[in-house]
Amino acid sequence: MESHEAYSQLEKKIKRISNLSDAISLLSWDSQTIMPSGSSDVRAEQIATLSVLKHEEMTSTLIFDLLAKIDTEELTDWQTANVREIDRIYKNATALSAELVDARSRAQHHCEAVWRMARKDSCFDLVAEPLNQLLEITREIAAVKADKFNMEPYDALLDEYEPGAKAENLDTIFDYLEPRLTQLLQNVLEHQKKNNYSDISFQVSEKKQKKLGLKLMAKQGFNFQKGRLDKSAHPFSGGIPDDVRITTRYDEQDWASSLMGVIHETGHALYEQGLPRAWRGQPVGLARGMVLHESQSLALEMQACRSREFFTFLAPVIAEEFGVTGVNWSAGELHQKCLRVTPNCIRVDADELTYPLHVIFRYRLEQALLNGELTVKELPSAWNEIFMNNFGFMPPNDKEGCLQDIHWYDGAFGYFPTYTLGAMAAAQLFSTALKDKPKTLSNLEKGDFSDLLIWLREHVHSWGSYYSTDEVIKRATGSPLDPSFYISHLESRYMQ
Hints:
The chain is mostly helical and 496 residues long. The protein folds into two domains: 3-164; 168-494, Neurolysin, domain 3 (Orthogonal Bundle), CATH 1.10.1370.30. The protein has 20 helices and three strands. A three-stranded mixed beta sheet has the order 1-3-2, sandwiched between helices. A hairpin with a 2-residue loop joins strand 2 (237-240) and strand 3 (243-248). The longest helix is centred in the N-terminal third of the chain and has 31 residues, at 3-33. The N and C termini lie far apart (66 Å). The mean pLDDT is 94.
């Protein structure tokens, strides 16, 4: 078999596996949005079956044989990169048995379903045992992969969300950030005392909030022919590049939270919709990892849509949609309110400055859980203690404490650190975009995101997984990912 023929067969095989992944993704979206609560068991069975089938396909000897027959010197650069990614995925898949994949899928779905009830009732005890079972399976997976690839167990989990990421590097970054963020927080809180913040609390119906969200999604460049907005308990982006499903949650007493949630998830969606079309269904055409994914959502939510220029556009839109008037609803007042730093319990509602502190302490806790320094039973008290140390107060209940995020309860250990790395990347990328596209901010005054989207398409989206995250950032900005850029951004924005 010639190299080109082997490569062609490999692409067809991987496309088949990609279709299974797509089906799993859409079933998972359904389970978190519109699936009846009583259907949890059957859905777990469906997803587990597809997950095992996908695993069997990915670990078949055919893939091994085809990879062995391919001479990358006869391929294009993109084909070579695709082979590299297929080989990486194949090695990760073959590290795990079908039984372990099945067990993980069932434990994830069961724990997530119980978490929804526990969160609703604010009762951690309800989900403690399912979480413990999921944690044990996660530890086993981490150990197997660590042994297979000669890496630390936690690094093996990190790699699932950000290929090549190492806890050692994260520790260096977070050790740099944490004291500077803590000090900056105190400085900003003192600085804010001289400002009089207007009250923009206002009851807004879910219907009106959704209408505003849809309008802004269109302005940002979202393709509604290949995506939709829905409602869920925890905002997320799911689906596939040609059928992107984003969600938000609504609080009629806090319209700003929902709005920023929609903007955030739209950033994820635009990344998916902008991935290289010629490589749909192939690993090289996928998003590089969660650091870049999060950078795209935060480039919109925290960088573009927290700018004074964006609020020049947003203020009259809000006035029209919500029927509000007065100085409290002016662009300047809304912008000032939006940038107010107010520590609170909920990560997804956190301001830009305190958000990374939320992430860093979750990173510490999940490491402690995985290495056995912290038991599941001890998690609520440990959470409350570290929260008190960071923010000076404790969550009033488990719902606003250790039950607020879905991540651990659906098995996503290693996911949290990508949020802060993504925030760092967003600041660095956005700063460069403003230099390359100097009309970006002035266009935002008109609700025009085209300059920013064009730049992100060119420098991030269109490359899929051709380059590593580090390479994408360095090629786009001229520098590797550097936490000092992030600190400088926060200081300039909040200490003015």
